[in-house]
Amino acid sequence: MPSKKNKNHRELSLQTKLIGAGLSSDTQTGAIAPPLHLTSTYGWQSIEEMPDIDYGRTGSPVRQHLEKALAELDGAVSSIFTNNGMSAAQLILNVTPQGAHIVAPHDCYGGTYRLLNARAEQGHFSVDFVDMSDERNLDAAFKRRPSQLWLESPSNPLMRVTDLRKWIHRAKEAGAFSIIDHTLLTPLGLQPLVLGADIAWQSTTKFVNGHSDCLGGSVSSADPDLMEKLRWWHKATGAGGSAFDAYQTLRGLRTLPLRLERQQQNCQKIAQWLEGRKDVAQVFYTGLKTHPGYEIANMQQKGHGALLAFKFHGAEKERVANFAKALNIFRLAPSLGGFESLICTPFTMTHAGMSEKARLAAGITPDLVRLAIGLEKVNDLTADLEQAFTMMRT
Ligand SMILES: *Cc1c(COP(=O)(O)O)cnc(C)c1O
Q: I want to staple 12 with a disulfide (CB 3.0 to 4.6 A). Which of 7, 16, 29, 371 is the partner?
């Protein structure tokens, strides 16, 4: 990314690079912040001289700055910024060969499940949804010779931990591609390409933008040929994110390290606070020593993210609804990674795209509550939860 020459050739830290992304790139005015160009088309110098970007579907200057920063974060040769997370997933499916066999987590993101399932039903490929947190499923999963492995760890919302290195290693042996969604931990918390995966993708709607005001996604790889193919498809299908969304996302990205750190701290405190409560049967958060997979999580990820889930002791549906209603700071909404705290019930909200049978098989029961932790003062958040527990009981 263009920045002032570093006189003593010291490698800059990632945080400093993010702050510098695209700064002073406008030579016409000297603007420090990169400008937003609201134009669909760009002029050619002559009929022979095509500019770097000539049409908005292919890109925009601010999107290029963002993509460079995202590639830097992922340790990729390049990255593509897409309209949203699902459009990043669909972009990957465009380079998935017809008739391929895919193995994906049985409790993957609800939208990913819906997309893979629907495309499989259309006959584009076949898919097996497997509990990847259980290594005993490894052999069976590779029996049908998958050519793609879709991975997510920790899973959303039950925070199941998959030993990513093990599955990636096995995929490599079998000549299969591994594709990791690292939305939950962000590129700062999980580095799929460093772990050996072929593709890293995410929804930047969540932590990377972090302000709950626009959507976006990204796809990255260390393989230049693969990125070229993906870039061709992104243009052919119009998967690229708008200049405005790229502008917002780049702005959000600059403070990602700070936000993530604080949100993780808040989440860790709330997880521990919940764990000791008599109303709570189980807390799902990889930052808890009692969490199965705590050790593997610590080996492959940095930090534990700001999403947790819990189950009540014997609460029926109405009481869960009352609990959600009684909260003042936590808002009832899907999504995560924004500056604001949210609550949702995955069974009726984020994972409603899965059949009831699939939801129950994945452990997504009606009494499961998911909290996305924001940047509020943590004492205010626990006080809000405390009064909602009291309200629920009465
Ligand atoms: C939100 C999300 C997606 C989808 O992203 P959108 O931006 O909503 O399209 C994919 N994976 C995970 C883990 C997500 O949380």
A: 16
